[in-house]
Specification:
Blueprint: E1 4-7, E2 10-12, E3 18-24, E4 34-39, E5 47-52, E6 58-60, E7 68-73, E8 78-83, E9 92-98, E10 110-114
Parallel strand pairs: 2-10
Antiparallel strand pairs: 1-3, 3-8, 4-5, 4-9, 5-6, 7-8, 9-10
């Protein structure tokens, strides 16, 4: 059974940084592509922020490229998202999951609020 736990969110001023963590009890985690997603206020569906393949290839959304860094530690079944130079439009609930996530259960997410 898949269980995902995200942590590390909080309130930060524009220009600040936060580091998110995701522990995923996914079978054969090391073979899975993993991603961070977010649901912004008023949004109807989660959007992809970044994903990392089992081979370590990485793709970022245009809106976060150059500011966010995704990484993974397979031995810990953990995915990280380092977020720098945060903007108000980065506010939302952040989730991690398989990539693509279709059919995979979601965790509770972690709230990120960027505000002065």
């Amino acid at each position: 059974q898949v269980h995902i736990t995200e942590s590390g969110g909080g309130l930060v001023q524009p220009g600040g940084s936060l580091g998110l963590s995701c522990e995923a009890s996914i079978r054969d985690f090391r073979f899975q592509s993993m991603a961070w997603y977010r649901l912004i206020p008023g949004g109807k569906q989660r959007e992809e922020v970044a994903y990392i393949t089992s081979a370590g290839s990485i793709v970022y959304a245009d809106s976060v490229r150059g500011r966010f860094t995704i990484s993974r530690v397979n031995a810990e079944k953990t995915v990280y998202l380092q977020m720098n130079n945060l903007k108000s439009e980065d506010t939302g609930v952040y989730y991690c999951n398989r990539y693509p996530a279709a059919g995979s259960p979601w965790g509770q997410g972690t709230q990120v609020t960027v505000s002065s």
